[in-house]
Amino acid sequence: MSNPAAAHGSGGRPQSPSTESMRSGDAVVAPERVTGAQSVVRTLEELGVQTVFGIPGGAVLPVYDPLLDSTKVRHVLVRHEQGAGHAATGYAQVAGRAGVMMATSGPGATNLVTPLADAQMDSVPVVAITGQVGRALIGTDGFQEADISGITMPVTKHNFLVSSAADIPRIIAEAFYIAESGRPGAVLVDIPKDILQAQTTFSWPPQFDLPGYRPVTRPHGKQIREAARLIQQARRPVLYVGGGVIKAEASPELLELAELTGIPVVTTLMARGAFPDSHELHMGMPGMHGAVGAVAALQRADLLITLGARFDDRVTGRLDSFAPDAKVIHADVDPAEIGKNRDVDVPIVGDVQAVIVDLLEALRAEHATGGAKSDLGKWWEYLDDIRKTYPLSYDPQSDGSLSPEFVIEQLGKAAGPDAVYVAGVGQHQMWAAQFVKYEKPRTWLNSGGLGTMGYSIPAAMGAKAAAPDKEVWAIDGDGCFQMTNQELATCAIEGIPIKVALINNGNLGMVRQWQTLFYDQRYSNTDLSTHSRMIPDFVKLADALGCVALRVEREEDVAPAIAKAREINDRPVLIDFIVGKDAQVWPMVAAGTGNDEIMAARDIRPLFDDDEAAADPAEIHDTMDREQATTEGDSL
């Protein structure tokens, strides 16, 4: 990177800043006298920021005045600060660079806490700019005062409280660099009102002052060579791929690595699209609601090549029984993640794209000097049998109601792999991850780590703002939708024509599923009355918010409704799909259990029952060991 503006405006991955290169590479802006607020706007312009999501208020109002004159920065006036935060996240996930949110002090700033925590958990680069009460009022419990720096410290990568107007360009540029570099994350910049009103001098580029912040991006050669050696020796390896591969823009290199080695690939919830679903090496999504084959691959592996994943509890199940016989190679740009949840045999700190490139080079060197590729024939024979026997599937609803899985499957087929799909949280999120086929990165957005209800509509708005030529579908549940549906008004007014597939089962679906399975069908406070009393009537609500609205209750009407929605591109469209309330997400690994206890359906454990000899781990391992030893003996 030659300068912070290039880092943000180009969409590339920022590298370590250099004062000298910034001086020589930037178009230098002559010093000019401005207010602190004008300095904020000028800094955003120089950084190449195109869109800001926010709501004005007293403490941040000085920024909104010069923002009105900017011809480079578009401001999207949301209806709730949480909407601004999730919109910035959706923007960042599609654009590959930091999304920006803005709010006033006190309640405006605190309404950003959830989206900041959400972005930080999922390693999404966002920058929040908040107004603060004047410095004389800080600490006095002044009107709309909140210590947002202190409040957000645990849920951001870094935050700043600006103490001088002269520091504004440097601090905001540093905020973008920190958000986008290394492991991406959330950064907050809090600016007191009197500093925004003060006179200062603006010049560009700024000189960074980040002592001690030097993200490691290049992997160590010794670790790469050791990883290559383990890969060569493994007989049951798995490429365990996390969202870091998408953040690193490393999908082409991952495809090359998989095809070079023939190793099966599993993609976590945050990595859907990092590797093509249609590829023969792809085993699917692992985890609590992952494919049986993907879970089995991890459990029976003798080597996990973990790329940009963090051994999340939703993937591992009970940690002490996860992949019990596997050695672990763990590559991540964040050294804090390596060894945090699982002991690691080969730790590799570095940008995942650089790691894969070096691994490819090391493996090709091994092959060139006579090192034979591992024979994975028996391993694939085992995995192929599992995935053919237990594919993802669903049954029609016993009461004849519309199956939510059918709706989502039909949507994926109609919109195709070039569309962007943005899910809320719950059953519909899992069905969207399972039954839409993802072929490309940055086409699947969801709240994975924090599991934030209300994410989908504003995040879809941000995604569409980042890629206006793409078809963007929000797949939301009736519970999630009621938390942030007001942002459809924003979409209608701002000309952001997202499409919404509302999976309306009348309940808090995932909570109801747990009540069915673990609470003796005692349905405490999960009925939302959207079926029984039609409160609200989502078609009328969507119409009032400026959308085209449709309702579908029969299977034969699903495809025509989706086709009609796809033809409308001048305003948002909502389809209210009335689906069965008793549909459940399968497969499932119940919370607190190990992955060996995965159920393909209720009380059906297809792979790991004791009475199925073929699924006995010891027998699998012994058989493969004997066959491998025979093969090696023949070759000698």
TrEMBL record:
**InterPro entries in the cross-refs:** Acetolactate_synth_lsu, AHAS_TPP, DHS-like_NAD/FAD-binding_dom, THDP-binding, Thiamin_PyroP_enz_cen_dom, Thiamin_PyroP_enz_TPP-bd_dom, TPP-bd_CS, TPP_enz
Q: Which family does it belong to?
A: Belongs to the TPP enzyme family.
What is the name of this protein? Acetolactate synthase
Q: Which residues form the Thiamine pyrophosphate enzyme central domain?
A: 224-358
Supply one GO CC term from the record: acetolactate synthase complex
- Membrane-crossing residues? none
Q: Where is the composition biased (Polar residues)?
A: 13-22
Q: Name one Pfam family in it.
A: TPP_enzyme_N
Xref: SUPFAM superfamilies: DHS-like NAD/FAD-binding domain, Thiamin diphosphate-binding fold (THDP-binding)
Region of interest called Disordered, as start-end residue ranges on this chain: 1-28, 613-636
Q: Which GO terms describe its biological process?
A: isoleucine biosynthetic process; L-valine biosynthetic process
Q: Which domain of life is it from?
A: Bacteria
**Domain Thiamine pyrophosphate enzyme N-terminal TPP-binding intervals:** 35-149
Reactions listed under catalytic activity? 2 pyruvate + H(+) = (2S)-2-acetolactate + CO2
Q: Which GO terms describe its molecular function?
A: acetolactate synthase activity; flavin adenine dinucleotide binding; magnesium ion binding; thiamine pyrophosphate binding
Which organism's genome codes for this protein? Gordonia humi
EC number from the UniProt entry: 2.2.1.6
Keywords, A to Z?
A: Amino-acid biosynthesis, Branched-chain amino acid biosynthesis, FAD, Flavoprotein, Magnesium, Metal-binding, Thiamine pyrophosphate, Transferase
Pathway the protein contributes to:
Amino-acid biosynthesis; L-valine biosynthesis; L-valine from pyruvate: step 1/4; Amino-acid biosynthesis; L-isoleucine biosynthesis; L-isoleucine from 2-oxobutanoate: step 1/4
